[in-house]
Design goal:
CATH topology: Rossmann fold
Number of helices: 9
Largest sheet: 7 strands, parallel
Strand content: 15-25%
Number of domains: 1
CATH class: Alpha Beta
């Protein structure tokens, strides 16, 4: 198999959540460049910019409006997708973070983080996974975090959800490996996105973070694209249950 074939997504359809901005948008744009057709799931208003950017790229882009925190509605939304399309690659990227002391964390804030970061991925993986199981092939990529391994600071709900998403990744990888489905995760380091804006705006915290990153800079969404393409293509057919850390060396310190 040629290198071009190993890393090609030509003829494949990828469903990506959280593609309106940041890492999700970077992955969607990267997948389009690798030849994939795209289904972007989330609030249509937030996805409009990404869809417009990809217009004329030669790839098919479908936007499916969904509130990922409305867990009861997700199965019906996804059944509408799977009735029309075979999804070869699923990227669960949408995520939210609520920062603050644990004792002051409101129950509704905790529940929203769990709904978007953990429960939506488990439901989407189940609904999309059914078709993959029937066809005997598929790739699922969950977006984890450095807080899948660490506790962080004043982000208990986020850290808990990201620990759990790695557990879900391993469990599904074990269960579905013999059915030709690979389930992996990517754990981005400190990436310059809206979710980290508050940290970057705090001069002291920004300097503290940069001092631990061997590459000496914040990552960008584009830094995650190569890993996402690898895990979606035939190049990773013997990789499953793995969490690939892309962090500029943070975890090595």
């Amino acid at each position: 198999m040629s290198v071009d074939t190993l890393f090609s997504l030509a003829g494949r359809t990828a469903l990506v959540t959280g593609a309106g901005r940041g890492i999700g948008k970077g992955i969607a744009v990267g997948y389009a460049a690798a030849g994939a057709d795209l289904i972007l799931v989330g609030r249509s208003a937030s996805l409009a910019g990404t869809a417009a950017e990809l217009e004329g790229s030669g790839t098919s882009v479908e936007v499916v409006d969904a509130d990922l925190s409305d867990l009861a509605a997700l199965p019906a939304t996804l059944s509408g997708v799977t009735e029309r399309r075979d999804v070869d690659v699923l990227v669960n990227c949408a995520g939210v973070i609520r920062r603050g002391p644990y004792v002051a964390t409101a129950g509704e804030d905790w529940d929203q983080v769990m709904a978007v970061n953990l429960d939506a991925p488990r439901i989407i993986s189940r609904e999309i996974g059914r078709g993959m199981l029937a066809r005997g092939s598929g790739k699922i990529i969950n977006i984890a975090s450095l807080l899948s391994f660490q506790g962080g600071r004043e982000a208990a709900s986020y850290a808990t959800s990201k620990h759990a998403i790695v557990g879900l990744t391993k469990a599904l990888a074990n269960e579905w490996a013999t059915s030709g489905i690979q389930v992996n995760a990517i754990a981005p380091g400190y990436i310059a996105t809206d979710n980290t804006a508050a940290l970057r705006a705090d001069a002291g915290r920004d300097a503290e973070i940069l001092s631990r990153i061997p590459t000496g800079r914040w990552g960008t969404p584009e830094d995650i694209v190569g890993a996402a393409i690898f895990l979606a293509t035939p190049a990773s057919d013997y990789v499953t249950g793995h969490t690939l850390v892309v962090d500029g060396g943070w975890m090595s310190r």
